[in-house]
Structure formats: C-alpha cells, structure tokens
Specification:
By secondary structure, the chain is an alpha+beta fold. The protein has one domain (about 5-100): Aminopeptidase (3-Layer(aba) Sandwich). Helix content is about 25%, strand content about 40%. It has helices spanning about 25-30, 35-40, 50-60; strands spanning about 5-10, 15-20, 65-75, 75-85, 90-100. A hairpin with a 4-residue loop joins strand 4 (about 75-85) and strand 5 (about 90-100). Helix 1 (about 25-30) packs across helix 3. The radius of gyration is 14 Å and the shape is globular.
Length: about 100
C-alpha cells in the first residue's frame, strides 16, 4: 500500500515529510540508482528500466504487507522509504531508506 502524508519537521528551512509516492517520481529512482554512491549499501540491487519501475510501483500499491513513502523536502523528492514484509499479527517488518538526491 502507498503511505499517507506524514509531516516530520523542518530541515534546511523547509518542511520535511513522507508523502504518498506518485508514478511521476519513478524517473528519479532510475537516475539515482545509476549512481554507485547511492546504491553501494543497498542489498540485492539492480537498476530498473522505466517499465520495470512502473511494475514495481504497481506491486507496491497493491502490497497489503508493505507501506511505501516518498521522502520530500519542501516540494523536492529526495528519496524513499518503506516498511515491507509486515507481519501484522506480531507487529514486525523490514525497513529501508534511500536518499537519492546527493545534495542531501
């Protein structure tokens, strides 16, 4: 499922928040994931095409055991985060975060 907007505070003089991901943000991930500095600590990583990103986005939106957000600073998309493989019964999940915009 795609997470709802959560305001986190201020950073760099702008509002920092998690927001519902949008398909028009997928090209950012493609660009970020071409950069080995962004991906060097990611496990099981491989770069995706736009079509593969769209398929991934669709799976995320339909995933009942995951919550996915875009990390926003003001109106700028700077990264993404998620809780995946959620076991709702015992309250566990796996988290991940990527700050793709190297200015942050």
């Amino acid at each position: 499922m795609l997470g709802q907007r959560l305001v986190c505070g201020n950073a760099c003089g702008e509002e920092l928040y998690l927001d519902t991901p949008a398909e028009n943000m997928l090209e950012n991930y493609i660009e970020w994931f071409k950069d080995s500095e962004v991906t060097k600590y990611m496990l099981n990583f491989s770069a995706f095409s736009l079509e593969q990103e769209k398929e991934w986005f669709k799976k995320c939106a339909e995933d009942p055991n995951g919550v996915y957000w875009s990390i926003m600073l003001g109106d700028k998309h700077i990264g993404g985060t998620a809780i995946s493989r959620i076991d709702w019964r015992i309250g566990t999940g796996v988290t991940g975060i990527v700050i793709g915009d190297k200015n942050y």
